[in-house]
Model the fold of this input.
Amino acid sequence: MKVRLFIDGAARGNPGPAALGVVVQDGRGRVLAELGEALGEATNNVAEYRALLRGLEEAAARGATEVEVCTDSDLLVRQITGEYRVKSAHLIPLHGRALRALGGFRAWQVRHVPREENAAADALANRALDEAAGAGATPRHRGARAGQATPPGSGATARGPRAGGASPRSRSAVFDHLCRGLTRVARGLRGTLGLGLKTTWDGAEFYLDPDRPFPMASVFKVPVLLELLMQAEEGRLRLEETIALDEAMKAPGSGVLKELTSRPALSLRDLALLMIIISDNTATDILVQRVGTDAINRRLAGWGFAVTRVVVDCRALLFDLAGRPVGASGPEARFEVERLLKTAPRVFTGRAYAATGTNVTTPREMTALLEMLVSPGRLPEGVRAQALDILRRQQVRDRLPLYLPPSAEIAHKTGSIAGVRNDAGILFVPPGPALICAFARDLESDLAGSAAIAEIGRLVYQAYA
Done:
């Protein structure tokens, strides 16, 4: 995917109050985002570099693999292309950061354009300066304005948006209205809803039961995917490696591989696709065995996640739910487990619903895991790009994207067991990626849980699209 950035930095004084403006376009020239952010005291050159870095951050967050940067700063272009040396001590670190950020793309170009072609980015920067001056405070103070608010509802926390772009008051009003709507959804659900929402462009956050462990169900396939891609990045396996399917590998529950009568040889890449886009349990268990739960959990711990863990595969989880010991998995055993899962009484006990010793996460931790996919630096660029590409192909669309128009862009993974309906994903709206994690458990109606999550998706999209 290619994006074009128009960037501009402005400073009233040298140094003086400064701001940046960025316009993000797709390959067809359609505007995807417009950003105007105050920077505090800075020189014009610093503002130009900050605009470049902000634009590259936005491009990477949208999954771009190629980027074309357009700027009316001839100096910036010549420094980035190596024609001019960077001599100013305060620019050298920014120059290095910019080159590293550009290096994360498969292809990039930074070119000079006449000022009139960059008018939109210039206007955004100057508007941010005007708003900062009109507020009677320096832009830096405005940027730190975000306050704490707690909407009604048990275990609810929220942090308002950082200033920048639209006026803080209008941004805060939109966010507060959204928080009230999300709280209403939680109150109306007969069950327990854990929720995480973060808007990456301004840092606004809203949580319900942020640190309570929730069963992931098939959302645990996201950490499996990341471990697979990380091991490929590290050279420990090849995604083109093939595994021949046999009867003993087949797991009950969702998927198509268990239904096949042939014995195809499938690549790890294809198994990852099946695991995510149709939640194939057999593909998942093959990959869990290939990468290992110990490796998955060491990686999660290394990333700083204290609760999120992958302990059991799909077969073990579903056999436990059905009250059957995990043994040899032939067709008769699978059919019996699936029959029991359809007819068993709704009792939320046992390992699958426990807070430890099973596949669990929290709304806060899963939101942070999703943020790694759209934030440069935490994961290798190739891993981020591949994970987002696969998650964008999701075919189970009865939750977060249910009420969204077909053009809405979302990368996500659902999860379901009896009494549990989950969805965790990244909704790409014009201001940037919105991270949404919804975990519903102890449901009287699974359909109602899916509908509540669909309403959450609609509310977030309506607020920002």
